[in-house]
Amino acid sequence: MNENIDILETAIKQAAEQGARIIVTPEDALYGWKFTRETVFPYLEDIPDPQVNWIPCQDPHRFGHTPVQARLSCLAKDNSIYVLANLGDKKPCNSRDSTCPPNGYFQYNTNVVYNTEGKLVARYHKVGKSH
């Protein structure tokens, strides 16, 4: 996954140098396509509601282990460009809830947007919960 972010970093820098104001990454650009609910889980991060006013680049541990969000946030900030990326979000659920998966987490295919200051400004769960 870090190799994919390295490639994305080069593209973001090139786009910014050419005057782009926003870069939209392809679906599954960070994770690739060969994964299951179980194999992707270690790479998921808690993606908070943007109303929390968070710049992951400046405060990467505020919502737990968020290295991917921190790196994307810094890429947006360092290049003064909006970055839209596709990530995986995980939210804990109550095991007594019949819809809660066995591992105790809902998993969401999520688009995020970081502004030119690196602030998380949008989060969109693209599809329903993954069980």
From TrEMBL:
**Residue ranges of every copy of the CN hydrolase domain listed in the record:** 1-131
SUPFAM superfamilies reported for this sequence? Carbon-nitrogen hydrolase
Q: Which domain of life is it from?
A: Eukaryota
List, alphabetically, the Gene3D superfamilies matched: Carbon-nitrogen hydrolase (3.60.110.10)
PANTHER family in alphabetical order: BIOTINIDASE-RELATED, PANTETHEINE HYDROLASE VNN2
Q: Which family does it belong to?
A: Belongs to the carbon-nitrogen hydrolase superfamily. BTD/VNN family.
Protein's name according to its UniProt entry: VNN2 isoform 5
Q: Which gene encodes it?
A: VNN2
